[in-house]
Amino acid sequence: MGKKNVFISHRWDYEEDYEKISAVLDRSKYDVSDRSVESSDPLVGTKKQVTDAIKGKIDSASVILAPARPAAVTVGSMGRTEINYAISKGKKIIAVNTGTTTSVASFWEDNDIEVIACRKDSLENAIG
C-alpha cells in the first residue's frame, strides 16, 4: 500500500499511548513515515521554537493521530495546540482509544473527529 506520513500527537508522560498506536501502525498495510517527536530526540528551545518545529512536523504529515484520552487535549496543552493547528490546516485527524483509560475526551466529538479503537483494522479503515 501507499506511503503515509503520520504525526502522532502525544505526551511523553503517557508514553504507552504512543507505543500502542505506533505498534498498530507497524502492523498495518501502510508504509509509515512517523513524523512524531521521538523521546530519544526531544525538541529543545523556546516555547515558540518548539511549537514552530511541531507545526512543521504536522505540515509534513498526511494524517494526525492522537490518543483519545482527556489528558491528550486539555485546555492550554501542547496536544490541544497541535490538534487545533491540524484542524486549521485541514488535516485528517483520528483520535485513537488506546484503552489506557476508561474515558474519552469530549473535545473529539465537539470537533467532529472520529474516535477509533486501537486495532489494525480500525486504523487502516480510518486512514483510508
User: Roughly how many Å is the radius of gyration?
Assistant: 13 Å
Poorly predicted residue ranges: none
Distance between the termini: 10 Å
- Please report the total strand number as a whole number: 5
Shape: globular
Q: What is the helical fraction, as a range of percent?
A: 25-40%
Instruction: Tell me the strand order in the biggest sheet.
Output: 2-1-3-4-5
Classification by helices and strands = alpha/beta
Indicate the proportion of strand residues: 15-25%
What is the mean predicted local confidence, pLDDT? 90
Could you spell the SSE succession in H and E letters? EHEHEHEHEH
Give a quick account of the main beta sheet: strands, pairing sense, barrel closure: 5 strands, parallel
Number of helices: 5
Sum up the structure in keywords.
128 residues, 20% strand, 5 helices, globular, alpha/beta, 5 strands, single chain, five-stranded parallel beta sheet
Question: Which helices and strands, and how do they pair?
Answer:
Blueprint (H helix, E strand, L loop, with lengths): L2 E6 L6 H13 L3 E4 L12 H13 L3 E5 L10 H11 L3 E6 L8 H5 L3 E4 L2 H8 L1
Parallel strand pairs: 1-2, 1-3, 3-4, 4-5
Helix pairs in contact: 2-3
